[in-house]
Amino acid sequence: MNVTAKPLVIGSVRLAAPVVLAPMAGVCDAPYRVIAHGYGAALVCTEMVSDKGLLYNNVHTEEMLHIEPGEHPVSMQIFGSEPETMAKAAARVEAAGADIVDINMGCPVKKVVSNGEGSALMRDLPRAEAIIRAVVHAVSIPVTVKMRTGWNEAEFTAPELAKRAEAAGAAAVAVHGRTREQFYSGHADWSKIAAVVQAVSIPVIGNGDIADGPSAGRMLAETGCSGVMIGRGAQGNPWVFREVTRYLQDGTILPPPSAAEKYRQLLAHFQALVAYKGAYTGLREMRSHASWYTKGLPGSAALRERLNRAESVAAFVAIVEAQLEQAVDR
Asked: Where is the DUS-like FMN-binding domain (predicted)?
């Protein structure tokens, strides 16, 4: 399917392509956002940032406000359940240099929804609208909302939430085609994303089950959405942004990265992570990324086991460099 994508404009922010990195906890830190942007993600989104963490000057939360020069435009996502604290958090995000502030109304995790945050707001639309309105009034940058289709199949509230978001001044919404009840299981229901597109005039960004150029093209064609957001399909796979962007330009299907390319990028990512977070944290956080980068490669299970046992930066690097040497020689 050959789809020529239109430019995606979110308020005052015009994107080079309608291709967005989804906000993912434990994935979308500054090092990976820079990498994703380099491969063609026209907008990168941060891990979700707690409004209360910002309000009480939590050190870890403060660190999450850091933005690298090479990642703009960047959307910083905040979560909470109170209009006043969310407005204050949004102002902090704008002051930190974010180009867009995104409101999380889709996180399905129990500890989040039990506080009335994330997906729980899809069951309290008046509160959700009040939060959006407060955030819009608190900042001069565009405000977006990330949501799911609803709490469960019986509560398909996304179209109504999107209408309320538009009325409250949101510049765009992103819709993950799964319910909160599904978490990440089953298949994303793109027909429900299409229903949201029909309900509002602001851009709708489709999210869920996008893994390559053709699936991104189908998302645009089947839903009429204005852009695509890639989450799990980008874990250990920043090349997906290059592939999707090119496919949406002219229908070209690029070849997948070679094993050598994967090992080189894994090393570069690890070095950036260590430089940003230090050896102890970088080494441990890279284990998840490494498992994604190496998935499907020959001997990947044994390799992951060795990487997980590596106790120093030098040991980790030596293991990957040995794999890279073998891959180049093949």
From this structure: 21-321
183 and 45 inside one domain: yes
Q: Find where tokens 């707690």 sit.
A: 50
Backbone region of residue 278 per phi and psi (left: phi > 0; alpha: psi in -120 to 50; beta: other values): left
Q: Quick check: is 225 catalytic? A: no
Question: In this structure, is residue 193 part of a structural domain?
Answer: yes
pLDDT tens, N- to C-terminus, the chain (330 residues)? 445 567 899 999 999 999 999 999 999 999 999 999 999 999 999 999 999 999 998 888 989 999 999 899 999 999 999 999 999 999 999 999 999 999 999 999 999 999 999 999 999 999 999 999 999 999 999 999 999 999 999 999 999 999 999 999 999 999 999 999 998 988 999 999 999 999 999 999 999 999 999 999 999 999 999 999 999 999 999 999 999 999 999 999 999 999 999 999 999 999 999 999 999 999 999 999 999 999 999 899 999 999 999 999 999 999 999 999 988 766
Contacts 24+ apart (CB under 8 A), 285-292: 285/26, 285/29, 286/316, 288/26, 289/27, 289/32, 289/235, 289/236, 290/236, 290/266, 290/320, 291/236, 292/235, 292/236, 292/237
The torsion angles phi and psi of 300, rounded to 5 degrees, stand at -65, -35
238 & 101 share domain:
yes
CA distances from 254 to 4, 18, 280 (A): 16, 18, 37
The residue annotated as part of the active site, out of 28, 45, 107, 225, is 107
* 289 and 221 fall within a common domain: no
CATH of the domain at 69: 3.20.20.70
Domain C-terminal end among 250, 283, 308: 250
Kindly report the CATH number assigned to the domain that includes residue 291.
1.10.1200
Q: What is the pTM of this model?
A: 0.94
